């Protein structure tokens, strides 16, 4: 009798948990659908360049202004750290000249596009989310719709292309700064000749590596901007809603960037096997 009573009780206790899980999954699927819809809608009006050219230039300047200095401060010690760690290992086998190849290969293929995307998401993307979120809580987005202006075309489209453009530029800057930092630690500190450093730096790289890297930077910047605009346009009302949206935008953008980096890197290594 006791067992017969406890089984329905367990079933009744399990039902709310299953309903909560279904609600959680459906909620995330709904949010993902909204993100994809905003991104595709913003990308659809790309051809109308005259409508968003001014905002595009302004956003490019803003993102570049808030990310250039942090990029330099990160890339210089990052390249030096890679050179220092690798130099300690290759010195034991007498291959110090291979440090340059390792530093540049790591910077070009993996570090530069991911670092550029994270900086765009953290500095420029948070500003995008707070700006669009502030417009939302002031009902400016609804006012644009009342005037017959699509807020996605007016606000999202220029930010998508601005973040992508600046991402490609920052990627090149990170590579340059990282090579300089690696040169300092490998040549000045470790005593490797400059010719050996730069000869090793170009021995493993191909044009396809740089092409894939710039493509990654473009895609990652696009992802960071789309997530930031999505969170800004769907944030909760009030200052606390905007603050939560900013935090969520940075986290979600970083997760999507790492996932996209894995997919693109796998495809790139399959199509263009690394040189040995």
From TrEMBL:
Pfam families: MlaE
UniProt keyword terms in alphabetical order: Membrane, Transmembrane, Transmembrane helix
Membrane-spanning intervals of the chain: 62-84, 160-185, 217-237, 249-272
Identification of the protein by name: MlaE family ABC transporter permease
Organism: Actinomadura fibrosa
